[in-house]
Here is the input.
Amino acid sequence: KRVEQLRANRLDTLTMPDNEAAWLAFAEELAMDRHARLVKLSLGNRRRAPPSSDAVRALMAAVAKHTSLKKLECSNAELGDAGVEHVAAAIAASSSVNWVNLRANGMTARGARALADALRDNDRVEMVSISANDVGDAGIDVIVRAVLAKQRLERLLLYDQGGVTDASAVPIVALLVGTRKIDTLHIDNFQFSAYVGAALRTAIDANVASPLATLAHNGNKFAALHVRSIEVPRRARLRRTALHTLRDANAYARALRARFALPVLVLDEIARFCAVHDLPLAVRHRVLRYAHTWTRP
Here is the structure.
């Protein structure tokens, strides 16, 4: 019934049934750019068996050609890395998709790399969720690099990741320091050390032009943050405000080094993160400036 309503252009949202034949049939219709009002496509919570690679490939190939579809709701769809690669290919080729939820799909670093490549090709994406997967430190690294390269994303949800250690603190700090667009970042249940938690706070302070409104993190000894938006000062005040913030961050860093014997965020690690020339020059400059401030004796 809902498909019939969609065919009559009376619906803008469709949840795909748990039926392979329906996926293939709808893919054929979508490929012909029918259903002009369709804005959101949900793959649904699969309960019988994961979708076949052929079904996902056909549906995503059709999504790539559609011109009105904006949102892909793929949470709990059991896509795996192979399915995520098909979704990423659709995102890269689409002229309209700007919102994608890949929560809980068994994604690893392989799927994260495919998604990162798609984010570099599609500069319209504003919201991405890869929460409740297992992308590890390598996956966090490639996603953050793609986000910083395009500076388009506004909401990034990474919470409940498996295999994430303090090594992911470097890209997260780089994101906080280098972003000019993200206003919401969720890294709940990242088991960062207390030192890293403190580094996240100073990274927020160091980015005077950040639009960040909410940083959610409830890891080890670091409660959830709700950061008010930071207003960009006028040009005449920008240099003075930035220097004042960096001096405060430097004093805070010295106090933390006295408390924690094994600092995680050292200049060499952040320099290595910035050494790969896939980041804009302005972003590398901001991150390295922060790193020098943090590690200065």
Q: What stands out?
A: The chain is about 50% helix and 10% strand. The longest strand covers residues 13-15. Strands lie at 13-15, 40-42, 71-73, 99-101, 127-129, 155-157, 184-186, 214-216.
